[in-house]
Design brief:
The complex is a heterodimer of chains A (about 550) and B (about 110).
Chain A (H helix, E strand, L loop, with lengths): L18 H22 L6 H6 L6 H12 L2 H14 L1 H12 L1 H15 L4 H5 L5 H34 L5 H52 L4 H10 L19 H17 L4 H6 L6 H32 L2 H6 L7 H50 L6 H26 L4 H25 L5 H20 L36 H17 L6 H13 L3 H5 L2
Helix pairs in contact in A: 1-9, 1-15, 3-9, 3-13, 4-5, 4-13, 4-15, 5-11, 5-13, 6-13, 6-20, 8-9, 8-15, 8-16, 8-17, 8-18, 9-13, 9-15, 9-16, 10-13, 11-17, 11-19, 13-15, 15-16, 17-18, 17-19, 18-19
Chain B lengths: L12 H6 L2 H34 L1 H4 L2 E3 L2 E2 H44 L1
Antiparallel strand pairs in B: 1-2
The chains are: A mainly alpha (about 550), B mainly alpha (about 110).
Keywords (chain B): Membrane, Transmembrane, Transmembrane helix
InterPro entries (chain B): DUF485 (IPR007436)
Protein name (chain B): Membrane protein
């Protein structure tokens, strides 16, 4: 896969807009959200308050926050850019991200809300052996969160030269550190309640700005979509008419085609296994509100991707493919350049500020989830065997949030030259392989047991990361035309230990993880009828949820 | 029945409830809706992905102006996603919740006696 958020920015960039204005608008967002968070923060927090805001949000609020959590910079800048340059294939990519929400709506959200309280492992370990299942789940949650965090932090670094006009390693590192520190502040001061409000504010700003751009673009073409496509074709002579049909990006060879099918599978099954998405279902009091959350999320996310279609073709038509390719950040520059074309420096400043806000809101959600997993599943349930106070647990969660923040900052600095779309795709592939099979089996399959869960989680995790290591993503891609640099992670084209042909392993690892879950289960006789009855009755009726919240 | 819901074994109210016709009807109703619906949207999504991958020429066929079959198929994915969301939420609010609430209330009765 070529990158949606590509790094390795060329230096001879054309400069647009005013960096000072961009920075001021971003600083304004940080200031306003910090004030909101400080006002909401109410002294000491229980574990439930810190991880889930004690389930105190309404379905609508949570739905908006989910949109804010899910619509990352890769969605906003990446998909708009992909549509601008490659047309239909960018659109195709966004559809996977949307349809995936039906898995969450129909199979996962309500039942998870009814059977869990604080973390994803609550559900998976419900009727299985607590310690081994919690350790396995926590491992996979931390792995998914780490890859996703890395992608977002690296994205922040990559956006710097584009949006703030600063260049060079040092400046990028400073911005990554600033993003990390603000994010740690959000999490420590605000907990889940504060983070949720940041996500709500960001979602409203992002969707509003995109809607304004859409109407503006359509207005220029007399609200005629066909006319807009025509202009995009005229302004992209290299691709031309192909902009309107699939295949520009994914249709190069049979391998890229199979790779795209593999990616589609990971996207559609990965969303409902993303820990920071699942964590959001615990911030509402009941399964009815969880249902309402996903309803709102689907309307907002779907609406947003429809707007992105217009913004993407609009950037292609009004800015032009050549201009976009010359800008630092290339495809990622499409939406900001379109903003500049439409509304000059002020509008560019607003869109740039929102792009940074987007990254902040997403990393804060990831950090809360990862620190909850560490403090609750590893520290409390495994190390202390359940014997610790809520105060202690929250203290550990705060320390882990700082540690995760530091790891994210250092990882982001290290990974900023990596292909960010690949990191996001990897997070989805691990979520779909290591998490989703166990979630579905434990909710729907009576016979499912500990061995099945462990084989499926570890099998999915190890096979996904293993196949990635031996894929062309890591080594062995042919050098880019006119250079001796390979687009693989290892840029020396002479080093090649790849033998797995696909960039996306989901096509192999997802069925494998389902199979291992089945095989492990049928070879073990463990079965707890009482816990199964309790879990199934609770999952469908919501019985005991309100009671559990009192703790 | 015992007034302590936490007792293990045959006395457990959840085990007792799981075998009632009432609960089995709820379970059947839920699965009878979400499983076929999941099958439907996954098949429809992969038909779309496979057509886009292996029949780009067909997907690029223009219907009106620059509007292609592929674009209509893609927008169709949005329409079905929105429609399934709407239909499921309405169905669950009307058909599922009353059954689930009734069972929940019966369990509360057992607990608080």
């Amino acid at each position: 896969m070529t990158s949606f958020l590509s790094a390795g920015l060329p230096a001879e960039a054309t400069k647009v807009g005013s960096p000072a204005l961009n920075i001021a608008i971003f600083a304004g967002f940080v200031l306003v959200t910090l004030v909101v968070i400080v006002k909401l923060a109410s002294g000491k927090k229980s574990a439930g308050e810190f991880y889930t805001a004690s389930g105190g949000f309404s379905g609508r609020q949570n739905g908006i926050a989910i949109a804010g959590d899910y619509l990352s910079a890769a969605s906003f800048l990446g998909i708009a850019g992909a549509i601008a340059l490659q047309g239909y294939d960018g659109f195709l990519y966004s559809i996977g991200f949307l349809v995936a929400w039906l898995v969450a709506l129909l199979l996962v959200a309500e039942l998870m809300r009814n059977t869990g309280r604080l973390t994803m492992a609550d559900v998976l370990s419900y009727r299985l052996k607590q310690r081994p299942v919690r350790i396995a789940t926590a491992t996979s949650v931390l792995a998914v969160s780490f890859f996703y965090l890395l992608a977002q932090m690296a994205g922040a670094g990559g956006l710097v030269s584009l949006l703030l006009g600063v260049e060079g390693e040092g400046a990028q590192n400073i911005v990554i550190a600033v993003v990390g520190i603000v994010m740690i502040a959000y999490v420590l001061i605000g907990g889940m309640r504060g983070t949720t409000w940041v996500q709500i504010i960001k979602a409203v700003l992002l969707i509003a700005a995109t809607a304004i751009m859409t109407v503006w673009v359509l207005g220029k073409y007399g609200f005629n979509l066909s006319g807009l496509f025509d202009a995009a074709i005229q302004n992209n002579p290299k691709v031309g008419e192909k902009l309107l049909e699939p295949g520009v990006k994914y249709g190069v060879s049979t391998t890229t085609k199979i790779d795209f099918i593999s990616l589609s599978l990971a996207l559609v099954l990965g969303t409902a296994g993303l820990p920071h998405v699942l964590q959001r279902f615990y911030t509402v009091p009941t399964s009815k509100q969880a249902r309402k959350s996903v309803e709102w999320a689907i309307w907002l996310i779907g609406g947003f991707y429809l707007l992105t279609l217009v913004v993407g073709y609009g950037a292609g038509a009004l800015v032009g493919a050549e201009e976009i390719n010359k800008a630092p950040g290339k495809a990622n520059a499409a939406a900001p350049l379109l903003a500049f074309e439409l509304g000059g420096s002020p509008f560019l400043g607003i869109v740039s500020g929102i792009a940074f806000a987007t990254i902040l809101a997403v990393v804060a959600g990831l950090t809360i989830t990862a620190s909850a997993t560490f403090a609750h599943d590893i520290y409390k349930e495994v190390i202390k065997r359940g014997d610790t106070t809520s105060d202690n647990e929250v203290r550990v969660a705060r320390i882990s949030a700082v540690a995760i923040g530091i790891i994210a900052i250092l990882g982001g600095m290290f990974a900023k030259s990596q292909n960010i779309a690949f990191l996001v795709a990897l997070a989805f592939a691990v979520a779909a392989s290591a998490n989703l099979p166990t979630i579905l089996y434990s909710l729907f399959w009576k016979r499912f047991n500990t061995r099945g869960a462990l084989w499926s989680i570890y099998g999915g995790l190890i096979s996904t990361i293993g196949l990635i290591i031996f894929s062309p993503v890591v080594s062995g891609k042919a050098p880019l035309p006119g250079t001796t640099v390979s687009p693989s992670m290892i840029t020396n084209p002479d080093i090649d230990f790849s033998w797995f042909p696909l960039d996306n392993p989901g096509l192999v690892t997802i069925p494998l993880a389902f199979f291992l879950g089945w095989l492990g289960t049928v070879t073990s006789s463990e079965y707890n009828a009482q816990k199964y009855a309790e879990m199934e009755v609770r999952s469908l009726t919501g019985h005991g949820v309100a009671k559990a919240l009192d703790h | 029945m015992s007034n302590d819901a936490r007792i293990r074994g045959d006395e457990d109210p959840y085990v007792a409830m799981q075998t009632t016709d009432e609960f089995q009807a709820l379970r059947r109703k839920f699965r009878g809706f979400v499983f076929p619906m999941t099958g439907f949207f996954l098949v429809w999504y992969f038909v779309y992905v496979l057509l886009s991958t292996f029949a780009p020429g067909f997907m690029g066929t223009k219907v009106v102006g620059n509007i292609t079959i592929g674009l209509l198929f893609g927008l169709g994915q949005f329409v079905t996603t929105f429609a399934i969301t709407f239909i499921y939420a309405r169905w669950a609010n009307r058909e599922l919740d009353p059954l689930a609430d009734a069972i929940g209330a019966r369990l509360d009765g057992v607990k608080e006696h």
